[in-house]
Amino acid sequence: MSNRVVCREASHAGSWYSASGSQLNAQLEGWLSQAQSTIRPARAIIAPHAGYTYCGACAAHAYKQVDPSITRRVFILGPSHHVPLSRCALSPAEVYRTPLYDLRIDQKVYADLWKTGLFERMSLKADEDEHSIEMHLPYTAKAMESHKDEFSIVPVLVGALSESREQEYGKLLSKYLADPSNLFIISSDFCHWGKCQRFRYTYYDESQGEIYRSIEHLDKMGMGIIEQLDPISFTNYLKKYRNTICGRHPIGVLLNAVAELRKSDLEMNFTFLNYAQSSECRNWQDSSVSYAAGALTVH
């Protein structure tokens, strides 16, 4: 019987971000140096998962709120872009590689989650094809580098969950969110706007002026609702505007976990710290993706 450790390779290194550890390290340091640590320590962050040339600077504003001295476990919830999934899935890997250093999966927490019967197991190929979790690994490694041998990760691929499923997973994960030694990373871009086959979303409120201003107004409406930490209002916003927030289900799980903890009078606040767009849409031939970075604190 083989004792070989199952590793997930850094499959998007060299395309979505640098495969060179030294170059990647310098880029991350540069972006982080431009961000302020205003609301540390974060218990959860929302950050984008596009190529670093597009969203690296934005993501830094969320990662700057991470306190490596207290964080011992990092949950990463990312949406499934390629595999049809109606539940959540766990990785078959034990180690996630990054150009900086390898991250190990917390097998005890994985075993506990698996026992609930609520999770599927994704294939290694599905895991390596997906970028929504991987794009957070180098930033996690960088944010945690001063304690790199003292933490583990818990990657969770989140499917197209119903409202009741979001509630179920939120309830399940709320006990982990209650623990100050855990950090939750919620992987999400915001509006994907354009006529192109990939997006097919062209909501436009002319009263806002240029198209990109309308997109920003729409996104910031959603961000304001997330800051209220109200899962029902967020669901209603999505139903009304159909905004193409690809991490809406991981966000929904977080909001439901927070709602569960608020029942026991835990005071929690969420603040967005940065917003950006890949380009400024001014006509119907244009397209763009929006990015937002924010952090949840517990008092």
UniProtKB/TrEMBL annotation:
CDD domains named in the record: MEMO_like (cd07361)
Protein name in UniProt: Protein MEMO1
Gene3D superfamilies assigned: LigB-like (3.40.830.10)
InterPro entries: MEMO1_fam (IPR002737)
NCBIfam families reported for this sequence: AmmeMemoSam_B (TIGR04336)
UniProt organism field: Sphaeramia orbicularis (orbiculate cardinalfish)
Signal sequence coordinates: none
Record family assignment: Belongs to the MEMO1 family.
